[in-house]
C-alpha cells in the first residue's frame, strides 16, 4: 500500500512543470481567489457549512478510491454527482437566493475605490443612533414591547412589504408612539433604513434553531430568525421584563445596557469595505473555536 501511494506521487511530480506567468494569469488568480473567498464567507454564515464539511470528507474518500483504483466506488461516485448537486440546490435554495441577493447589493466599484469614511459611507447619523438607544430603554422602563430591525447591506424589501409603509424620519418620540400599547402599529416589527423608518407591523421569520432557550418569546425568536436570514441588527424590548436584547449574526445578547447597545450600533454605523472583512471573519472563527 505504501509503495502504491509513493508511486502515485512520484508519477504526479514527474509531470509537474512551472509555466510562464503572465499579467492575465495573475488577474485570473485574483478573481478566482475573490470568488472562493466570498463563497467561503457566505458558507461560514449558513447551515451549508456542515454540507461543505461533508463534501470535503467525501472528496477525500473519492481521492483514496482513485489512488487504490476502486472502480466500483468510482463508478457509483460518478453516477451520484448529478443527483447530489441537484439535491443540494433544492435543499439550500433559500441560502442560494439570499447569496444572490447579497451579491446584487454589492457595489464592487466603490468597494475598490474607498478613500475615506465620509457621509456616503455612513448608514445613519449619530442623532438616529441616540434616538434608538433612548427610545429602547424608555420603553424598557415601562415594559413596552418593541422589535426594531436596523438594515445593513442586505435590503429587506420582502419583509417591508408585509407591513404598513411609513417612510418617516426616525426619532425617539416616533418610536415611542409606534410601540405604545393598543395603537394600530405596535404589533410586529419596524424596519429602519438609514435615518428613516420604512415600514411598521412587519412580519419576521421565526428562528429554526431548536436549541435556543425555551423561555424566549415570539419577539426574541423573530429577532433570531431575522438574524439567520440577513445581516441586520435587531433590537428587542421585552414586554414582560423590560429588558433590551440585540440579535445579529445568529447570536442574541440579552439584558444589555445602553452603552452596549450604542457600541453595537456604532459598529454598523459605517459601511465596511470588503478589504476589512477578512479580519472580521477570522475573529468570528476564533470566537466560535
Automatic annotation (TrEMBL):
Segment forming the signal sequence? none
| Spans traversing the lipid bilayer | 26-43, 50-68, 74-92
What keywords sit in the KW lines? ATP-binding, Cell membrane, Membrane, Nucleotide-binding, Nucleotidyltransferase, Transferase, Transmembrane, Transmembrane helix
One Gene Ontology molecular-function label: diadenylate cyclase activity
Q: Which residues form the DAC domain?
A: 93-258
Enzyme Commission number: 2.7.7.85
Q: Which reaction does it catalyse?
A: 2 ATP = 3',3'-c-di-AMP + 2 diphosphate
Top EC class for this record = transferase
User: Any keyword ATP-binding?
Assistant: yes
Does the keyword Transcription regulation belong to this entry? no
Q: One of this protein's Pfam families, by short name?
A: CdaA_N
**GO annotations under biological process?**
cAMP biosynthetic process
Its annotated function is as follows: Catalyzes the condensation of 2 ATP molecules into cyclic di-AMP (c-di-AMP), a second messenger used to regulate differing processes in different bacteria.
Subunit structure, interactors included: Probably a homodimer.
**Family of this protein:** Belongs to the adenylate cyclase family. DacA/CdaA subfamily.
The protein in question is named: Diadenylate cyclase
- Species of origin: Hespellia stercorisuis DSM 15480
Gene symbol here is dacA
